[in-house]
Amino acid sequence: MKKTLLFLFLMTIFTPLIAQEPNNDELFEKTLNYQSGKITLPEGDGTLNVPKGFKFLNAEQTQGILTNLWGNPEDKSVLGSLVPDGKGVTHSNSWMFVISYRGDGFVKDDDAGDIDYDDLLKTMKEDVTVENEERKKGNYPEVQLVGWASKPYYDSNLKVLHWAKELKFGKDEANTLNYDLRVLGRKGMYNISAVAGMDQLAEVKASIPQVLKSVEFNDGHKYLDFDADTDTVAAWTIGGLVAGKVLAKVGFFAIIAKFGKIIFLAIAAGFAAMRKFFFGKKNQVTTRPQEEETALLEENNPTEE
Asked: How many domains does the chain have?
């Protein structure tokens, strides 16, 4: 009787929270400071002109969304993101372009026309298999590189490389789209990566022309400003960028994805924990966050004999 009364009391707390999840999303969206217009990027001597149809979030807000809301490992290299107008980051159909910078030198593009991208894909799949061992150690889901969602293309005039991969994370039913752009400069490059679902490929691809022109290096730092006598040349070329060799220092943490609404899952986990406490293991939920919540509750509240 005592447990039943306590359960009913807790239900009055958790049920409204679950029922009001859309309102929680709206409240969270209002805390975000979206920007437009011309943005001075904090690294790389470059500028972002926020393209029509998008809004900008700074580094701190973007990192919080990727890590706390979408469940990715922390990545302090992130400089900000572009979010499509009309879509908040908590929506089921939300996606974004994540912007970062690497100042590892001038990337030669001599090999751009000689790469067999089908052969390169085979090598990349082998690399992902090896990296999955590290993902397991970090308690992150394995990744399967399904194939090209869009074959690599190098624009020799704009000095921009872009391509798209189709990825499968763990046992997720829907595959993830990673659409990558590399804007090359005199001393490094800007990375612009779209994190979305495969069902959003057409939408993402349609925005590529304006997005790849939105980030540019300032005068004196452009690709054509390269000085062979003074500037550093990167250890990789175009093929290395597509293969991901440039991300060796970051390893498996380089792959980001949208895993879901972590805020809502935390509430659901608490509810599932209560069910197990009152009714035993019959209703145990097997996802990791819920198991941890259940274990913590049982530790602090041992079941009465």
From this structure: 1
Residue 220 is assigned to a structural domain of this protein? yes
User: Does residue 51 sit within a domain?
Assistant: yes
- What is d(CA 305, CA 293) in angstroms, rounded to the nearest whole number? 22
Region 128-140: mean pLDDT is 83
> 3-state SS of the chain?
CHHHHHHHHHHHHHHHHHHCHHHHHHHHHHCCCCECCEEECCCCCEEEECCCCEEEEEHHHHHHHHHHHCCCCCCCCEEEEEEECCCCCCCCCCCEEEEEEECCCEEECCCCCCCCHHHHHHHHHHHHHHHHHHHHHCCCCCEEEEEEEEEEEEECCCCEEEEEEEEEECCCCCCEEEEEEEEEECCCEEEEEEEEEHHHHHHHHHHHHHHCCCEEECCCCEHHHCCCCCCCEEEEEHHHHHHCHHHCCCHHHHCCCCCCCHHHHHHHHHHHHHHHHHHCHHHCCCCHHHHHHHHHHHHHCCCCC
- pLDDT at site 48: 97
Cβ atoms within 10 Å, residue 24: 16
Chain centre distance of CA 66: 6
Terminal Cα-to-Cα distance of the chain (whole angstroms): 14
CATH for 98 = 3.40.1000
pLDDT (tens digit per residue) in 72-92: 778 888 999 999 998 888 877
208: domain range?
34-260
Is residue 159 within 8 A of residue 179, CB to CB? The reply is: no
